[in-house]
Amino acid sequence: MAPSDVPVLQLEFIDNSLLPLLFGDHDKNLARIEQKLGVTLSSFGNTVRISGDEDTAPVARKTLEALYKRLEGKRSKGRSPDMLEIGEVDAAILWASDTAGPDMDRFTERAGALDTWKRPVNPRSPNQARYLDALMQNELVFGLGPAGTGKTYLAVAVAVALFKARKVDRIILSRPAVEAGERLGFLPGDMKDKVDPYLRPLYDALYDMMPGDQVEKRLTEGIIEVAPLAFMRGRTLANSFVILDEAQNTTPTQMKMFLTRLGENSRMAITGDLSQIDLPLGAKSGLREAVETLEDVDGVDFIEFVSADVVRHPLVTRIVNAYNKRDGSLLPPERT
To answer: What is the pLDDT of residues 212-239, one digit of tens each?
Structure first.
């Protein structure tokens, strides 16, 4: 029993059949919420009692409500809801904790998702929702932050959705060919064979959203292009969605060259992590210079992700936090 001075909230759910999915095997989802928020959850039939302080108890209630609505939303669309994943629970906690964030319906799937060929793509955190909104509304968007926050994946999802809707004619994906501590220059094969290892994450995102035969066909036709940064020089990229990934490994000259490729009716997404620069010691990152230079330019937006936005295995978040604690965060100051 909670002490008398601890706020106790009570939630009652109408559809008992969804509660096993909501609570998880052996109530693991409830345990996760307790662990992350420092509350106590007690279930009695279709009722959950929440004991916690005045700040965390309402967040726990909002989290449970959002997860329940997410399950309801899946059922209302004719889908049989699956057991919630821990990542979904963590995402719900992020949304519920962000009082200034986008509408909670963006998480519960009641609002529109990005329409790709294989499946709808929804944001998993408030920052991801801000990022998607920025990509849809601005001609140039910088996605900054650690690995696993969805910067590149969501940019590819927007590109595919706009291409499917015939709002752009081409998708162009690029990366600087800078090794992360390895030496790949002596690999056998032609130029494509040598640069493909650098571009594999971009291919992976494409194949996750489009049937493989469509990807292959459009790559052959040049409608989708995956190319190293050096191949962009001298071009004007019109009617396209253009993505530059791992942009922290560009030089200032390369970054300026790439940014000035933007043509009519095109959008550009620049993604990178300023804490993982693989340039030679002493070389300035083109991404860092661009952030400093373009901060006040109209039509340019910056979305900064943090370790809490990591949507890979929970251990990735702890790894990012450990490195940031050791080295100090190298991300630009948070914008207000």
So the answer is: 999 999 999 999 998 888 888 888 899 9
For 173, residues 6+ apart whose C-beta sits below 8 A from its C-beta are 156, 159, 199, 202, 206, 224, 225, 226, 227, 242, 243, 245
pLDDT at 318 over 50: yes
φ, ψ dihedrals at 322, nearest 5°: -65, -45
* 140-144 vs 114-115, strand pairing mode: unpaired
Beta strand extents in 13-113 (DSSP E only): 40-44, 47-51
Following DSSP, what letter does each residue of 148-165 receive, concatenated? TSSHHHHHHHHHHHHHHT
AA identity, residue 308: A
Condensed to tens digits (0 to 9), the pLDDT of residues 48-74 reads 999 988 889 999 999 999 999 888 877
CA 67 to CA 21: how far, in whole Å?
Answer: 10
- The Cα–Cα gap between 24 and 33 comes to 12
How many C-beta atoms surround the C-beta of residue 56 within 10 A?
A: 19
| Half-sphere CA count of 124, side-chain side, radius 13 A | 20
Residues in the chain: 336
115 vs 307, higher pLDDT: 115
Q: What is the DSSP code string of 223-286?
A: SEEEEEGGGGTT--B-SEEEEE-SGGGS-HHHHHHHHTTB-TT-EEEEEE-TT---SPTTPPPH
User: How far apart are the C-alpha atoms of 250 and 29, rounded to whole Å?
Assistant: 42
Q: How much is the CA Rg of the chain, to the nearest whole Å?
A: 22
